[in-house]
Amino acid sequence: MNETKQEMNKIQEIKKVNKYSFKKDLIFLLLKILLIICVMFLIFSFVYGIARTNDISMKPAIKDSDLVLYYRLDKNFVSGDVVVFKKNNRIMMSRVVAVAGDQVDITKDGLMINGAVQISQDIYSDTTQFKDGTDFPLTVGQGQVFVLGDNRTVASDSRIYGCLNINDIKGKAIAVIRTRGI
């Protein structure tokens, strides 16, 4: 009888330890999940960003409703980079075609950077000026870039609102996530 009581006491102690261990493990798991969520929030608040395309200015490279992952910390833009920026309360994307010190002109021959006609195999329409847009030729100022959309006939870009200040650019596109038409 005495042995049976001792065995029962041992079983109860094991149950208490297991119950305590389960609660401890559950709390530890929840803390890990909370930490991961906080780290992801900080990363996507200060290092990376995600934007949804709401127009066809960059078609066919970036289509309407695609998600674009962009990197916020690199502000050294070069010709060819796709940048994400906010203009007129809209998130927009365009390709950098000229940087500080470059002279941009749009003539009947097309886009000219520093006197050389620019030919790109990914641009399917002519680059033309807009009637009430920017006056050409222009020189890109220090701390600015000149951007154009790939879909030149309908794109809202620097031909309308002039050069972009680098500080107004949210970041450089690093990945496109296609959300429809797959």
Automatic annotation (TrEMBL):
TM stretches of this protein: 26-51
SUPFAM superfamilies: LexA/Signal peptidase
Ion transport as UniProt keyword: no
Catalytic activity: Cleavage of hydrophobic, N-terminal signal or leader sequences from secreted and periplasmic proteins
Annotated ranges, domain Peptidase S26: 30-176
Enzyme Commission number(s): 3.4.21.89
Gene3D superfamilies, alphabetized: Umud Fragment, subunit A (2.10.109.10)
Coiled coil: none
Main localization of the protein described in the UniProt heading: membrane
Record-level GO cellular component terms: plasma membrane
Keyword Protease listed: yes
EC class: hydrolase
InterPro entries in UniProt: LexA/Signal_pep-like_sf (IPR036286), Pept_S26A_signal_pept_1 (IPR000223), Peptidase_S26 (IPR019533)
Gene Ontology terms for molecular function: serine-type endopeptidase activity; signal peptidase activity
Subcellular location: Cell membrane; Membrane
Membrane-topology descriptor: Single-pass type II membrane protein
Any one of the GO BP annotations: signal peptide processing
Keywords (A to Z) from UniProt: Hydrolase, Membrane, Protease, Transmembrane, Transmembrane helix
Entry similarity comment: Belongs to the peptidase S26 family.
Protein name: Signal peptidase I
The gene coding this protein: lepB
